[in-house]
Amino acid sequence: MKSSLYLLPGFVLAVLGATIQYVPPDQWDALNSTVGGHLHVAAPFSRACFPEAVTGVPGTFDESACTQVQQNYNDPASRSNSFGAYMNTQWETCEATSEQCLLNFLNTSDPSAFTPPQVCAQGGVPPYYIDIHGPGDVQAAFNFSKSTGVPLAIKNSGHDYSGRSSAPNSLGLWTHNLQQISYDSAFVPAGCPDSKSSSGVTFGAGVTLDALYDFADANNLTIPGGVAPTVAAAGGFLQGGGHGIFSNAFGLAADRALQFKVVTPSGTYLTATACQNSDLFFALRGGGGGTFGVVLEVTTRPLPQLAFPVVAVTLGDVNATQLSEWLRFLVANAIPYAETGWGGYIGYTTGAIFANPLINETQAASEMASLKDFLAILPNATFSLSTQPSFLTFFDTFAAILDAVPVGLPLSASSRLIPADNFRTPEKQAELATTLETVLQVSISPFIFAVAPYLFEDDGMTSVTPAWRGAIWHVPISAAWNFDTTKEEKKAILTGLSAAMDLLRAITPGSGAYQNEADVHEPNYTDSFWGANYDKLVEIKRMYDPDHLLDCWNCVDSQGPTSERFACYI
Which residues are in the FAD-binding PCMH-type domain (predicted)? Predict the structure, then answer.
């Protein structure tokens, strides 16, 4: 291995100026040899635009390369294909020290972001990473971490509101290039009897949702999932739960998982199913990514290809009174919609998309007649009902509306699961609608997700919070800032976001939040994310990771904010 691989001679790890560990060059040489040359240095995504950089940051100023970065700065596909990029760019930075390498997402050519005195810093991007090709690469990484003390960070597509896939001065494990997909019409999970056979689609950890939808459609199958095409289906999305427009009818992504192939921190390459290593199977179906092991492959249960009715609504120009009436109509009808199989995405100020895979278009017209009648009072509203021939067709038809969350900017979320009880009486409906009116005004993307698995009967082997099962809606809010926002301003933004969500927390006691779209400072996060499942998850975590080689922010059995791994959080 050439000496140019190293950021610093021997790579001295430092967080906030405190040296943690010195790793001699020969140990990096040995690691690179063990993983067959798959060890690489990682530069922040925007490195090429900065004439000046902190000593040790790899790469150089390159005007042509910078132009490419500027053109693709807000493109999720470009970001998912770069190890040094994250969808929410605060995780490329060290917020606590303001060390960063960011552009102005509103105008990526703005020179004030990248010309002196601005300096490109490594921030939260792991300075080294292994491009994972198989279990041997992961086993080598665990051995290296155990012997050197270098922390590990598992990264896939870079979609993570809580920054769990970034860590300063860590060794990254990039599973993005595990791209295999196959289909078995009579798949039997490992260790199970033949009587447990079912259709199964097996895919590598790096396979994105859009690739999975394409594959399913080509094989006359349906694989329910979310709306962001570049999210990797097997990563934190599924391992944290994974919701979509069909979740009410067919469950969360975690509910449909049949088998995991995973390297545990002990270095063992295991297959986890309901019939073998069932404790790990339980943990990986909702316990969260990045903490129990490195998942290399998942098998999920697909459905036959199906046609289904879709209702699309646009509000047009509406005033405050009309918005209030819109929200109250939705609250009043949430349980009836959920009880027959509808799921959907509701734009508080824009409209909605609803789908129901359990009924036909004639039934849909009858069930949604009241919605059509309500919209008639809005002068510019539109209502359409169509039958989509497949999930892929639906996804492609409505992609521009569904995938509306911006990328390439610092953005943080907070969320709450809204139980059915909050919709049951006129008094509670009024309380919920009034609270939502206040909370949603805070968000830059005011959405309501009708994606809870309310109708679906789970098998009791998932570890997501039980609050999912009794919920009707999942309500996220978000806030954003830019490259020149100060540390104190960022703190104020995060505090304001959490304070707004406190209003919903107050009227939903005993509920929880979706860990993948949760507040970075979620109160009592262990109960909020996992509820009664948490103690069991801690036992499983300590069984498979007794040395605590894996850790991430607000994960199961996390070492907490005082850990130097989390020194960049604010």
Answer: 122-305
CA distances from 202 to 239, 251, 333, 558 (A): 15, 18, 38, 30
Tokens 């999305």, located at residue: 237
CA distance 121 to 94: 9
Q: What pLDDT does 8 receive? A: 36
Residues contacting residue 55 through CB under 8 Å, at least 6 positions apart = 8
For 24, 228, 399, 400, 479, the CA distances from 403, given in Å and listed in that order, are: 45, 5, 6, 6, 17
304: β partners = 221
Sheet hosting strand 198-204, strand order edge to edge: 181-187, 198-204, 294-300, 257-263, 269-272
What is the DSSP pairing of strand 294-300 with strand 303-304?
Answer: unpaired
User: What is the distance in angstroms between the CA of the first residue and the CA of the last residue of the chain?
Assistant: 37
- Where do the domains of the chain lie, and which CATH numbers do they carry? 3-130 (no CATH), 308-531 (3.40.462.20)
> Which residue intervals of 341-398 are DSSP H helices?
361-367, 369-375, 391-397
> Residues 286-337: pLDDT tens digits?
999 999 999 999 999 999 999 999 999 999 999 999 999 999 999 999 999 9
Instruction: Name beta bridge partners: 484.
Output: none
Cα pseudo-dihedral 184, 190, 195, 196, rounded to 10: -70
